Amino acid sequence: MPVWPFHTWLPDAHVEAPTAVSVILAGVLLKMGTYGMLRVCLPMFPKAAIAYSIPIAILGLIGIIYGALVSMAQKDLKKLVAYSSVSHMGYCMLGIASLTTLGISGCLFQMFSHGVITGGLFLLVGVLYDRAHTREIAAFGGLGVKIPKYTGIFMLFAMASLGLPSMSGFVSEFMVFVGAYKSIYVSKWIVVLAVLGVVLTAAYILRMVQKVFLGQFNTKWEGLTEINGREIFTLVPLAVLTILVGVYPEALNVFLRGTVDNLVKLIIPS
């Protein structure tokens, strides 16, 4: 799990890896640390979970803010998405630290949402890299005119990543914030500061969209081809899940509710 300061392997791993490996890394492997905390650490050490809730929340807060700020500084499209993963997994830490049913459910929602949304973004970065052979954000400009279908799909996943309502990213972050704010184990100031992460995420996502897809079209990319049917086929299921969970969260929550209730009761007996 990419938690500050043990996160430095992640951007290099993503940038060096081919697209398929980046998707597996984002969709599955980043969640193994969180799964271990929820499945092993919390049930085995409930008193330690309570005692260390504030340090865990602070690590989550640092990850959220730091990951977002570093994403803003990136010039490589894939590295920007990679550092955004550090930021988004910080919400999972905050949800775990809350030790509330809503907060831990939000953590699980975030694990799912991040895998679907960031997996989609890595696929889209791979589609563009296959055609342009560069991921340099400054090298593009005005691509929305040339490849409108690709731009529309990219915008959907970009908006989901920044937490637009009616998409799964919004649901997971909202649940984490409310669960952590109501928690007696996490300072409300940590939650208030963590909300800044949403603003910073919007800043770097919208800046990236503006530089790559809007503005004056760079005639260097006159020969760029539109996204094809095979590539759309891989992205449609991820897009459907992103919207489905955003509009109807109960579709996912029905699988999680019993497990989360039992976990919270195990840590904090009534």
Describe what you observe in this structure.
The chain is mostly helical and 270 residues long. It has one domain (18-267). The chain is 77% helix and 0% strand. The protein has 14 helices and no strands. Helix 2 (19-29) packs antiparallel against helix 7 (101-132) and helix 7 packs antiparallel against helix 9. It is elongated, with a radius of gyration of 19 Å. It starts with 8 loop residues before the first helix and ends with a helix. The mean pLDDT is 88.
The dominant shape is: elongated
Mean pLDDT: 88
| Counted beta strands | 0
Largest sheet: none
Structural domain tally: 1
* Portion of residues within helices: over 70%
Count every helix, treating DSSP H or I runs of 4 or more residues as helices: 14
Low-confidence stretches: none
Could you give the distance between the termini? 31 Å
Element-level helix/strand string:
HHHHHHHHHHHHHH
**What is the radius of gyration?**
19 Å
- Helix-strand category: mainly alpha
Question: Which percent range describes the beta-strand content?
Answer: under 5%
